[in-house]
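Pair request: fold both.
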Amino acid sequence: MDERQLFGEIQLAKSGGRQVARVEHTLNPAQIDPAEHGAIFYAGGHGTMWDFADNQELAGIGAIYEAEGIVGAVCHGLAALVNLNFQVGVVASERLVTGQNPASAAGVAHQMVESIKNK
């Protein structure tokens, strides 16, 4: 057993099995009421490119953002955001400019020009 596995076993023992129970009883998207949650995080992985993009149940959870909640994604988890219509458009943070969907292309272009001018 390597150090990482040992750490996991120690954490599991400390939690009294609660961690395993949470994983074994994870809610599916249809069971989640966006009004009861302040954030959602879409984890990545190869399969999410097919599983997330057109999933209407996941799209419904996107309502968390519209209710002032936080939406995060990493790696291929971004596929969950492809068909959502958030009112955010363009996000700029220091030297990173990104758009939420194809409708934000013009806004991204404008922000890129402004960012270059102000550099």
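--- second member of the pair ---
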Amino acid sequence: MDAPPAPSVSPRSRGGPAGGGPPPAAAPPPSYSPAAAPPPSYSPAPSAAPPPMQQQQSFQQASPPPQQQFQHQAPPPMQQQQQQPPQHHQALSPPQQQQQQQHQQQPPSPRRPAGPPADVTLSTVQSSNCSPSGAQISQCVKKMHDECFQQLASNPVRKKELEDCSKRLGQLCWRLNEKQVSAAVEEKLMKLCDAASRGDWATANSVHVEMTTQHWDECSGFLTALKRLLKTRSAL
């Protein structure tokens, strides 16, 4: 038994061009010449950035907080004051050192005695430091005493009285030399001596009474001797 004939296929159903011509040639594959650009290089991918919390911690470790920076840069005022050496320990210049050594080597000035020495008399007392009025008072008292002593030294009783007057009036002259007599008392003594130098014994005795009533606390140590000297000198 014979096979059936194959079905005919039209050119349009085969996909060829119209007219039944041969099929078009396929496009050749792309060729890669040596001059083509090299393939891209693949570098290792950068590590991913840490999360925000890790970045903050690393920033804190890298730079100290403001308080720590301030502490490292400058100490607080109390530490600065402790670190600074005291001013009196600073080195002195040679002139200052010399002045300081001279000041240390100078002996302290002697203290002025509070009262006259026990053995002071009119013949031993100094009057170089007296004021002008104090020097006149001392000179007047010494002159009256010398005049009385020259006339009465032969009498033992009167001589002893005059020696006692010399001690007490020597204390007065010592106080005048040491500026320990008040201005009011010194003024009264000037009036008394001025009257005595003129022979006005009444005025001299009157001034003596004023000193007794007005300045007894200051003048009690020599007023009795001064009264006796005025009485003795007025009787010569």
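Observation on the second member. Confidence is low (pLDDT under 50) at residues 9-19, 68-72.
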